[in-house]
Design a protein that fits this description.
Number of strands: 9
Number of domains: 1
Number of helices: 1
Helix content: 10-25%
Length: 176
C-alpha cells in the first residue's frame, strides 16, 4: 500500500528523470506579430509608433501571437537574430546591418529609448508534428528581416522599396 507522499515523490522523480534526458525546454518570448502590410515579424509591445516599409506604421491586425526562442537557452535553429531598435523587426545580425525602415544607416540593436536587444534563435522547417506553428518564414536578402512568404502572393514590402527577396534564405517556422 502506498501513501500519498510516496506517490507524489515517485511522480516528481519521474518528471525530473524525463527532463534530465530530454534537456531543458527552450525559452521563448511571446507577443511578436506579423505586419499585414510588409509581412515582417515585429515587436508591437512598445509605446512608440514603429515605421513600416509599406508606409505608415506597423500594425498587428489579424496576426497570430508568435513566439521567438531566446538564443541563450539553446535548441535547434539559427542564432544571431535581433530586434531592431528603430523598426522593431526581427533581423539576422550575422551579416550586414541590412536596410531599415526606421534608420537610413541600417538596423541597430539599441537606441536612446530602447535597450539592447536579446539574441534570438529562429527554428528551421520542416514542421514539428503536434505543435502550433506556421511554415513559410524567410529572411530577406535585401533588408535582413524575417518575413512571411505567402505561397500565392507577393512577398510584402522591403525597406529597399521593392518586395522582400527570399533568395538564399533558409526555410523557417514560427510557433504561435
Amino acid at each position: 500500500m502506498f501513501n500519498r507522499r510516496q506517490v507524489i515523490g515517485a511522480a516528481t522523480l519521474a518528471v525530473a528523470a524525463h527532463l534530465a534526458t530530454t534537456g531543458p525546454a527552450a525559452a521563448a518570448q511571446t507577443g511578436w506579430a506579423s505586419c499585414p502590410k510588409c509581412q515582417s515579424l515585429w515587436w508591437p509591445n512598445t509605446p512608440y509608433a514603429i515605421p513600416c516599409p509599406a508606409g505608415g506604421h506597423h500594425t498587428k491586425d489579424g496576426s497570430f501571437d508568435y513566439q521567438v526562442k531566446v538564443q541563450s537557452d539553446g535548441g535547434a535553429g539559427q542564432g544571431d537574430w535581433r530586434s531592431c531598435a528603430a523598426c522593431q523587426s526581427l533581423w539576422w545580425s550575422g551579416g550586414t546591418a541590412g536596410r531599415c525602415a526606421g534608420d537610413p544607416n541600417g538596423h541597430r540593436i539599441s537606441s536612446y529609448a530602447i535597450s539592447k536587444s536579446w539574441y534570438y534563435l529562429v527554428e528551421f522547417e520542416p514542421q514539428v508534428p503536434g505543435l502550433r506553428h506556421q511554415l513559410g518564414w524567410r529572411s530577406c536578402a535585401n533588408c535582413s528581416v524575417l518575413f512571411h512568404s505567402a505561397a500565392s502572393g507577393p512577398n510584402g514590402r522591403c525597406a529597399t522599396g521593392g518586395r522582400h527577396q527570399s533568395v538564399g534564405s533558409w526555410a523557417y517556422l514560427l510557433r504561435y
